Amino acid sequence: MQNSFKSKLLPILSVVLMTFFWGYNWVVMKQAVQLVGPWEFAFVRNFFGAVVLLLCLAVMQKSLKIINFKFVFLIGIFQMIGFTVLVLVALVHGGTAKISVLTFTMPIWANLLALYFLKEKMSNKQIFAIAVSVIGLLLIFDPVHKNADFKSMLIAISAGFFWGCGVISVKKYNQKYPQVDLLNLTAWQMLLGSIPILFIIVAKGLAIYEINPYLWKASLYNIIFCNALAWLLWNYGVKHLKTSEVSTISLLAPVIGSLAAFVELHEAPKINEGIGLAMILCGVLMMILLASRGGSK
Known about the structure:
Radius of gyration: 18 Å
Number of domains: 1
Shape: globular
Largest sheet: none
Mean pLDDT: 86
Helix content: over 70%
Low-confidence stretches: none
Distance between the termini: 10 Å
Number of strands: 0
Oligomer: single chain
Order of helices and strands: HHHHHHHHHHHH
Strand content: under 5%
């Protein structure tokens, strides 16, 4: 049991660290899409993030060969367009805290997909931990709220679904090609996923944006920390943890994002949203505790 915990400690810590990068990034992205289009910003963070990782591969003298172009391209579509682009589009008009949390309906989709595609089973305690988090999400979603931005919320939930598809795809890829370096997979998924984004930008017409200091800082933060490093941490966690574990731990990100939105953007959470955040945090802590006790076999 102790060995099981030690083997999972590093993957758990990698996902937790990733949630801090992505959590604060909700505030950064919300302000960035007010300065530049969501598709353009997505291309910058994806393409140049991939360049950074490919340079790292070259410096470390690791293989730059792509294994199964179609498979990696599919992962890139799910995670770079289905997730990243839709998140940015939703943030244009939606509130930061609510959009960040609704995107993290991902664990629901990922675990449902894992039951069928990966034949993963969940213990009753894991199901309970996820249920607590889901109830927290529903409280924040507030489906009966008449003034809610339905379109932005629907886009955010769709982003969560495609991210879930990406999680399953990465796990299937790792099962089929366990020898592939994670740095290689992360770099190529980002690069291939950015190509269709560029085509769409050109097709809809290039726009000229004013480049200011904040946009530069936001771009660098996204390229280095939220794409190159965070996707590497995420894929490492996905490879070594069960879908239910990695997806539930990742729910820390919207909690951090909501708190950052409150502090920096003065988006005060409502009572139901505060309760929802607390429930999500409880679900995450329960899942981490179950993983540390070897609850997932």
